[in-house]
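Memo to structure team: turn this sequence into structure tokens by end of day. - J.P.
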Amino acid sequence: MSTLPVYRWRLAPDGLATRRQLRALGLRPGGQDVVAQIERPRRRRGPLVAYLYRIDSARPVRPMTVRRAAALAKANAARRRCPACRRDAGYVIPASLGMCTPCADAPRLAA
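Reply from structure team:
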């Protein structure tokens, strides 16, 4: 098993980019392996780590089709629907509550 080269923050060589940098260029890793990592030191915790990919091996981002947009809209609508009252909450239901805020507060207010 080989180890990855580690570069300090802002000192990565040209031709390597993080996922966010690739996305800003309209690219995606496209199945390639991580080639290096950069570390940003922090005072009281461990360093922040970002993985680097080769820009020349990256592929273009797949375009959003009508069917993919519809599926994404349907999935987001399901995340907004309260399972208790079946209404659209207008926001994504928090996983910690499992239901919309009025439904979560109802037992507490009734007591």
